[in-house]
Amino acid sequence: MINIIKFNLLAFYLTLTNRWLAPAEVARSYNAVAPTYDAEWSVLVISVTIAMLERLPRVVPDGDWVDLGCGTGLITMKLPPNSVGVDTSTAMLSIAAQRCPDSFFVKEDMLRYLRKQPGTSLSGIVSGWAIGYSNPGDIIAESSRVLRKNGILAFVVSYGDTMTPVLETFDRSLRLHPEMRSLVQWSHFPKDQDDLLKHLESNGFEQVWQEDGEIPVKPPDGHPLNLDWLLKTGVLAGFDQLLPHYEKDQVHFNFDRLIGSDPVTHRYFAGVFRKR
């Protein structure tokens, strides 16, 4: 009971003092996981990413393409030469630049990047698992502004209630260690597909393909689903900055004790849309 009171009081104080989780903290998390991201996480979700890319029109509009939240460049490498990858993580961008020598990379917040682009200046925008870290509605609106007629917007985004056992365990861990909390967060990950489709329709996009699905989350090679593995994947990117002392053995012990054995699935929306 005392911990819950401390937790709520601290969350209230952090809110009043404007200590919100910012893109810089998310970038810091991804800088840390960049060396392990592809081997520990990309391998689990790559089938969905490939399915999205395979639904891109066979004849794509000529012109500039952008990969928002490009990470290590797994999508950028499939786009036309001279495409631009945008990300806030310098470590991720370094890997992407080595992987995609014919592309250009920009360290920038994805929404800020779009807002700097002239109207009707792009032919395609693709994003894999990234727009939930921004504001999906604003990303869709800005994409409509900068895309030419018949331009393509394709993305995969996680739902807000994805991997529920992991997020619930993280929340319970926060409550056990209220004195460690340094930030509060406001999630922009979408609630469901209707939340996304209303923004797409109102901004002049027509559906080419879409999918609502989930992926079982199991660590490679039979390793246990524990905090040590999760911190190598990016699953807790940003969230881990709310409880930054993960090197403490007690935090690891409590998280791994609370996670339990319930199946964990990653829920997502994927779609390809054309600007009318």
Would you spell out the secondary-structure blueprint of this structure?
Blueprint: H1 2-16, H2 23-54, E1 65-68, E2 84-87, H3 90-99, E3 104-107, H4 110-116, E4 122-128, H5 136-146, E5 147-158, H6 164-176, H7 193-202, E6 205-216, H8 227-230, H9 249-258, E7 265-275
Parallel strand pairs: 1-2, 1-4, 2-3, 4-5
Antiparallel strand pairs: 5-7, 6-7
Determine the strand fraction and express it as a percent band.
15-25%
Strand order of the largest sheet: 3-2-1-4-5-7-6
Shape: globular
Radius of gyration using CA atoms only: 19 Å
CATH class: Alpha Beta
Outline the low-pLDDT stretches. none
Structural class, please?
alpha/beta
- pLDDT average, as an integer? 88
How does the major sheet shape up?
Answer: 7 strands, mixed
* Proportion of helical residues: 40-55%
Query: Could you say how many structural domains there are in total?
Result: 1
Could you tell me the CATH topology label. Answer: Rossmann fold
Number of strands: 7
